[in-house]
Amino acid sequence: xxxxxxxxxxxxxxxxxxxxxxxxxxxxxxxxxxxxxxxxxxxxxxxxxxxxxxxxxxxxxxxxxxxxxxxxxxxxxxxxxxxxxxxxxxxxxxxxxxxxxxxxxxxxxxxxxxxxxxxxxxxxxxxxxxxxxxxxxxxxxxxxxxxxxxxxxxxxxxxxxxxxxxxxxxxxxxxxxxxxxxxxxxxxxxxxxxxxxxxxxxxxxxxxxxxxxxxxxxxxxxxxxxxxxxxxxxxxxxxxxxxxxxxxxxxx
Length: 252
Hints:
Elements: H1 2-11, H2 16-28, H3 32-45, H4 50-62, H5 66-79, H6 85-98, H7 101-114, H8 119-131, H9 135-148, H10 153-165, H11 169-182, H12 187-199, H13 203-215, H14 221-233, H15 237-251
Helix pairs in contact: 1-2, 2-3, 3-4, 4-5, 4-6, 5-6, 6-7, 7-8, 8-9, 9-10, 10-11, 11-12, 12-13, 13-14, 14-15
Keywords: Repeat, TPR repeat
Organism: Cyanobacterium aponinum 0216
InterPro entries: TPR-like_helical_dom_sf, TPR_2, TPR_rpt
């Protein structure tokens, strides 16, 4: 197929279609640099093609040229503002690779204009606002995400984190427990529940959560220290001594 397109180009060197088709084929076969060159040649003949700029952005993103990819996606959006993917992909790069959360927010809002109720754009907006420490806004978008995906572990987990930041202890506990229902024995959720119990001085609960982590093989010195400390507070002297001895053994 690539050879056929090259023959077409030999006879029709001014063909946008020929360069575009060759670029698509090269991209599909994994020849990314060659595909990028072909899209560039296609754009020399027709600069207002949405797909050439969009696919060019995909390639640049794949080869880790993130700022160039953003510029390519921006050109695609200038040509066709009512698209979803060029806005969404651009938003992901701003958020995950460059950590410019305000720019990512703009992009995800535009993506939502063209694909309302899109879980991923809403979830990324929640993460962007969380990164900006705007926890109420983040919480709002996480709750929207959960309306779309009621059994989503990550939305419940981050909802708990936001509620914890806002000192909504009971709400945070509920969110973490919902996350744990979806993903039982999850280290991070159990760790957050243990931390929450510590904050509320619920030492028996903290012991229960840290014991679960210990049973999962998370026998770190920190967990032993916490278990020793809280057993001591509750007057469980033999248990406190047991974990103090484990700490000593692990330190040797």
